[in-house]
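Quality-control log, excerpt.
Job 1 of 2 completed; input and output follow.
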Amino acid sequence: MVPLRFFRSSTFTGANLDSFAISFLIAGIAFFGTLYLQNVLAFSPVRAGMALLPMVAVMMVCSPISGVLINRVGASKLISTGMVIAGLGVLLFMRATADGSYWDLLPSYLVMGLGMSLIFAPMTTAVLNSVESEKSGVASAVNGAIREIGNAFGIAFLGTLMNRAYQDNFDANSQVQALRADANNGPIQPLIDLIGSGMSFGGRVIERAEEFQGFPPEIASTLRAVSSDAFMVGMDRAIIVSAATIMATAVISFFLIKDQ
């Protein structure tokens, strides 16, 4: 179903590599970004979704401009520039802290929106120009499939990376170890283990979830702070990997994509 000869074209290969990398990045942002907003900053699901609107607004405004610049600047330069900018935007996510606010994230969303607005139009153009016109539909379908693979891989890989860092940091915390060693805390040990089992239970989840109702307030406060800090360790690790991946891909694709 997939003509493998398409990949003999360095432009086709480079553009699809970009598709994979940007989908990998977007999946990571959607995963750790929304979890951070809901679990650590206590945003509702709707409010967390609305928080992405500045990034979308920048893309809506700037994407038509990138379409105009393709013939003047060249697809390879536009794509690589956009990916570097998007990578820098991701790094700005490291401004976020366990006791931060949405305003710490806003610069990241704006910069990422600018970077992504420079990527999609030239990337699609590069894919379609790299094959004969009668095969453009197949080439577009392959590109779409690779984007989906990038999304799935981004969630699986970055999610695993973040979760492992969260678990290790939570378990190594001296306050958690003291709580586990206290014989008086026997009845709540399973709940402490549940919080430490994954980042989905980190942050303010302890204040909302039904299974934590009746938790001693002082212990709940301690675990919320510890799990929030562990969440940030995991998120920072995913941010670094995401940024490094997209910037490395920007360099590789710059040499692979040939401007028509």
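Job 2 of 2 completed; input and output follow.
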Amino acid sequence: MNIDILIHAKWIIPVEPKETVYENYALAIKNDKIVALSNSEDARRKFIAKEELFLENHALIPGLVNAHTHAAMSLFRGLANDLPLMDWLNNHIWPAEKKWVSADFVKDGTELAIAEMIRSGTTCFNDMYFFPDSTAEICANIGMRVVIGLIVIDVPTSWASSSDECLVKGEFVHDAYKHNPLISTAFAPHAPYTVSDDSLKRIMVLAEELDIPIHMHIHETTDEIEKSINQYGKRPLERLSDLGLLSSRLIAVHMTQLEKNEIEELKKTRVNVAHCPESNLKLASGFCPVGKLQKNNINVCIGTDGAASNNDLDMLGEMHTSALLAKGVANDCTCSDAHTTLKMATLNGAKALGLSESIGSLKKGKQADIVAIDLNQIETIPLYDPLSQIIYAADRRQISDVWIAGKRLLDNKKLTTLKYKQLIEKLILWEKKIKE
């Protein structure tokens, strides 16, 4: 059988079947899809490949799915550190956004974010930011898989003057990219405290009509809970439940403030939770009870949040932090083991985004979104368990190659669809402008 690429690797960790590690295996790609996984010797007999790679010290894993980002905010990386969330937002980030955010800002910031994400193994990200049309344009040009958040917020912004205008513009973005195989959309109401009941009701109806997810910050801080009780007489989740918003369509981001009855409600309504451990830690927002959610079979995925609050978009590092934090919060060293953590960062993220039929695992018929990690490095030797080393010891600089839909976007650590030097030059100009 003629194929495009045959990749031989020391290990392949497919996520499906669960808790599986193949040794001395090969992965066959034709066009944009995986057509087979098999023993390397058998694969060489069966396939005639245009390109054949031998990664003798590498593990192949599915492309990582970053379930929550604000990509363009990479241009604000390090702008305001060591501050509580509302101080950080109200007195630093929102004023900076008011001054600087534009279509060009979003294009350049997104380009920076994608470069970082590809270099650290992310092949799909779920974004929430202004000028989503600009984010989509950059992703299409680079060949990055993305779920574009159709941002909705009641206050005027440089993108739209009202929530009504957000929805009109959002539908236009959805229609413009609905036939692009790498670009999906989700409604992205910012948070319960910035979006009214009427807007949320409209979003729910439109999301049903377009059959797309809803992506929202929920229960991020104690301050959010207190304000909701003062304004509505109820906690945000109860308010959203009363509006009919809790369903498998919803991706609830952060969820650091949860009570027992709320976890039961999440289980019943099959809400997805996007856990952002490093951002929550840095802003001291609280701890998502990942262990309790997993015991209740709630789909938990992993996101980095934006580089303005993290301060990186490194999903390999996020998996490490997520696994350790979950154990500490649960007081259970078996919580979020290595296989579970990799699944959170791949298949669980794909499921939350409605993309699990096409990405999230290395399986015949799925899109060829693949990451190669060189484990023959000081940081990961000696090596007794490749997945354990990936989750607990590996560094993103060990990622050598990345494919999205069968196209190699990182080739031996070099970006193939981005011009590195020109990007750095643009970013230095932004740094100078923002500093001044």
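Post-run check on job 2. The radius of gyration is 21 Å.
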